[in-house]
Amino acid sequence: MEIFYYMVFGGLAAVVAALELSKSNKDRVNTSSAFNSFKNNYLLVYSLMMAGDWLQGPYVYYLYSTYGFGKGEIGQLFIAGFGSSMVFGTIVGSLADKQGRKRACVTYCITYILSCITKHSPQYKILMVGRILGGIATSLLFSSFESWLVAEHFKRGFEQQWLSVTFSKAIFLGNGLVAIIAGLFGNMLVDSFSLGPVSPFDAAAIFLAIGMAVILSSWSENYGDPSENKDLLAQFKGAAVAIASDEKIALLGAIQSLFEGSMYTFVFLWTPALSPNDEDIPHGFIFATFMLASMLGSSIASRLLARNTVRVESYMQIVFIISSASLMLPILANFLIPSDPEKKGGSITFSGCIQLLGFCTFEGCVGLFWPSIMKMRSQYIPEEARSTIMNFFRIPLNIFVCIVLYNVNAFPITVMFGMCSIFLFVASILQRRLAAIGEKPKTEDWAMMKERNSEAEPLNDA
């Protein structure tokens, strides 16, 4: 069956290369040299940040296990990370709108570097501190950088459509090519050079430090709404009111939570799904294949976003339906091609091959999702509270992932995949609703909301 892995990887690589090389003028957006310089600077920083993140991912669980911790203790560490992202990360990430997005990005680098340093200690309490720092850093990574980019893009007077170019390239590089290279580099450090499981974390810290130097030397500061002297509680209240008063923002948050919740659950489930009876599967090679599929999705997204005739709200309905169907495959495969529980080990089964193709399809949808959701966020989320609202979106996501981690052994794997499939189908329904009401401009809603709040404040003071 080993030839099967190479066939899937080679096929995806060929399609990605063909798509990138065959782009015509209508698949590209004509931009200025000033924008290209700005875009390339952001892509360099984003790639370094993602390299720091991807280098750590494959070795976190492995490092904890080498320190002698069991599955339960490691599960608690992971829950602490997501819980930290939900609580502390929301607060720290939301400060970006008031204290500055550049400052928040630098804080991400420092926080994640400190998290990497804690990995040198085998003491559980220190590792727990590292997970808490990592949770805070994750919230900053997925809010502050995008918030800085959107604000700086419009501050420099670039066209709205050009933003989608940066988004699609960032996902193609940071979530695709960089992930593959980081996986291979980490494998080389641990296996080829025998530097131990902590070496990828040291390498990650170096990449983060280089990225921080680029940010400090070349980025300017921007803010959400510095003109109003709001405390953090008032900022949270304003973001909550924005979500509650604008159906488009609420729908976008629900769609994001449903998809990302399913995506993070998939991360925990794909290994036992492909090797239910301890089959020998090449985890690193499969991970690289998934990243290639994600690159394919982002390449398709860049073509779609380059065309003014195609609405992102429309094609994302199809993406969610396809992703829902792809995660139904493990259920169908287990029902139609049941595995023999008595047979242990060996290579991947025929059922596993079918599921792998479905998982690659899902990863392609992930590659389509990221630049598309970024484009919709830039359209619907008000600039004044962008980071705060984006971190609010992550609260239900982190709650969901914590629940899944806590109960990962309580439900059969088919039930978990079925739940994810249902969530993705619900996301497609919500996306259809968003497409129906998406023509209404958000700026008018936000302005009216602020006016209502300002009129209500004197009454409350009285």
TrEMBL record:
Gene Ontology CC: one annotated term: plasma membrane
Alphabetical GO biological process terms:
monoatomic ion transport
Concerning InterPro entries, the annotation shows: MFS_trans_sf, MOT2/MFSD5
Q: Where are the transmembrane segments?
A: 6-22, 43-62, 74-96, 129-150, 170-189, 201-219, 285-306, 318-337, 349-370, 391-407, 413-430
Tree of life domain: Eukaryota
Tell me the membrane topology, using the record's own terms.
Multi-pass membrane protein
Keywords assigned by UniProt? Answer: Cell membrane, Ion transport, Membrane, Transmembrane, Transmembrane helix, Transport
Q: Where does the protein principally reside? A: membrane
User: What does the record give as the function of this protein?
Assistant: Mediates high-affinity intracellular uptake of the rare oligo-element molybdenum.
Sequence similarity: Belongs to the major facilitator superfamily. Phosphate:H(+) symporter (TC 2.A.1.9) family.
The protein, known as: Molybdate-anion transporter
Per the UniProt entry, what species is this protein from, by scientific name? Salvia divinorum (Maria pastora)
